[in-house]
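[job 4471] stage=fold_predict status=RUNNING
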Amino acid sequence: MTEENPNLILEIVESLLRDLLKEKLVFLLMGRTGVGKSSTINSLFNKTIAETNRYRPTTKEVIFYDHGINGVNFTLVDTPGLCDDLPSKGNDRRYIAEIKDKVKRIDSLWFVSCLDDNRLSRDEMEAIKLITEAFGAEVWKRSVIVLTHADKVTKSEYAECLRERSNVIREAIADPECGGSAKKIVDDIYAIAVNNEGNKKRPDGKNWRAELYTQVFLKTSDKGSVLLTLMTHGEIAQRLGLSKKQKQLIRKRFLEALCAYPAAGISVAAVITGGANIPVAVVVAFGGIIGTLCAFLISEIRD
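[job 4471] inference complete, writing structure tokens
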């Protein structure tokens, strides 16, 4: 394989990449019923991923939403708050068993709670413990804390509410009674406040969807980052209104994720960054997954 045969190189790399992307992207949303898990993810992707009901909580059982966007298959695991029921009913551990039976790994974990709550409930503490026991402390490396109902607090109290509420949740994740995740893991968990309706601004006036997407991308597993790139390229990424800094962070994380794979990832990274000595125009014109990734990087990630 030499420069004289760029299409042959691209065909091989495309094949490697297709093998790499066979698995589904898995999101797990945990939090009490009614905190806005479904509406938040629907607003982020501008698509009905999970059902919502403004008059009563929708999710009563663990629901697995299987979807496809831009040719990428993904599963959203929407929980019933895990601990909304009384412990004596034993539903919590049954829910965990259902999740583990359906998905073998979690690419992105969202711990969703209300920004305007003044304490962490016993239910939420129990949910943290169960998730840690079921998937190990490492799962929190792929997590973000999502604090909904940001529009319910005033501008003057917003910063304090975000800081205090997120610290309370981090402390619970690190608490030995809840599984005792390592402090380094816990300190790296990013917390973001959101509005459940995408068009509403936060009290600080910032674009929460772009921030949430960026942090989810940065924390998602290596394979998940590649899948998320393909899933959200084009209209979704453009609509988010990512800042230059956010684009740079995403591009860096994406290339790190590719290089995590000994064969396919490094080969793909070499092609799309020019290391394989194939002109970018040739890669884009080739099309397929490799062409899409290259076009995404040069047109949407790099300003």
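[job 4471] summary: The mean pLDDT is 79.
[job 4471] exit 0
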